[in-house]
Amino acid sequence: MQGWQLHELGQPKEVLRLDERPDPRPGPGQIVVRVLASPINFPDVLLCRGEYQQKPDLPFTPGVELCGEVVELGAGVTGLSPGERVIGGAVLPHGGFAELAVMDANRAFPAPEALSHAQAASLFIGYQTGWFGLHRRAALQPGETLLVHAAAGGVGSAAIQLGKAAGARVIGVVGGEKKAEVARQLGADVVVDRHSEDFVGVVKEATGGNGADVVYDPVGGETYTRSTKCIAFEGRILIIGFAGGTIPTPGLNHALIKNYSIVGLHWGLYSERDPESVRQAHAELASLAEKGAVRPLVSETLPLDRLAEGVQRVGDGHTVGRVAYARG
Q: Where is the signal peptide (predicted)?
């Protein structure tokens, strides 16, 4: 089979190599799937650079999430059959940027029929992160104001849709008019182009000076610092990631004075510590997808031989929504 592999670490366009290699075989409790689609996530970029917390031995194939068709079951696997369409995370070194990938059977979920291969694949990490962040960690309530940073990206677009589905008023922050239009189409009530507007002032004006009840921040750095200027009394700032490249140092005295919470979210821990909650979240997300309340934003699909250029563009911040490899 063909698949993209890393034999060294660096910028994706420089180190990803399309190789011919043996088909993977499933271990106990695993399945092999024919990859139907695999979205590019920012962790894939970090894996290429060697900057992700998970550091597989070289060589390996990135592609942390996918939609696939079951082709082979490992020992002890029950409840799945060849030909089923499933979504979930890949087991590295056999990631989704290849014709075949490996998954843990107990972390493979039915793909919603209402979604295409690329959309279904994109319902996993970004939407699970949004679900756990907004509902379990921040306890977002109907009528509250949700501020979403990087609102036109894969993670942010999911947060907009989930926030609207929860009955919140959503303010999306983006970079550029093209992305602003995307955020509006996703359902954001107020959209801020950070290139021409100060989101702090817009949030204060839109909330009558009260501020945002929940801030969804996958960016970090100055974005986090500025968010503390417009957080509401008893607000919650969700720390999702640091795509901006800088990890902020919170002023805990400021959190004390303004009475807000700084809430971390490492979604992957739920798969280890509370896997049933991940399965329940998938059921909720699949139901929303079947109703049309959420629909992953896939802006572009690429054939396998063009995937590396897409990974680089995601790393450079030049994409909207999800860019995904999809089998033709």
A: none
The number of folded domains in the chain is 2
The radius of gyration of the chain's CA atoms, rounded to the nearest angstrom, is: 20
Whether residue 102 contacts residue 66, with contact meaning beta carbons closer than 8 Å, is answered with no
- What element of type H or E holds 257? helix 252-258
| 194, 133 Cβ separation under 8 angstroms | no
Q: What is the pLDDT of residues 53-110, one digit of tens each?
A: 889 999 999 999 999 999 999 999 999 999 999 999 999 999 999 999 999 999 999 9
**Vertex 136, ends 160 and 30: CA angle to 5°?**
90
Q: Is residue 302 part of a domain?
A: yes
190 contact partners, CB below 8 Å, separation of at least 6? 169, 170, 171, 172, 202, 206
d(CA 307, CA 2) in angstroms, rounded, equals: 12
Give dist(CA 135, CA 278) in Å, integer.
13
CB 88 within 8 A of CB 63: no
DSSP 57: P
Q: What is the CATH number of the domain that holds 84?
A: 3.90.180.10
State the CATH number of the domain containing residue 249: 3.40.50.720
pTM: 0.93
pLDDT block averages, 10 residues each, the chain of length 328: 96 96 96 98 94 92 98 96 97 97 96 97 96 97 98 94 98 94 96 96 97 96 96 97 85 92 94 93 97 94 96 90 91
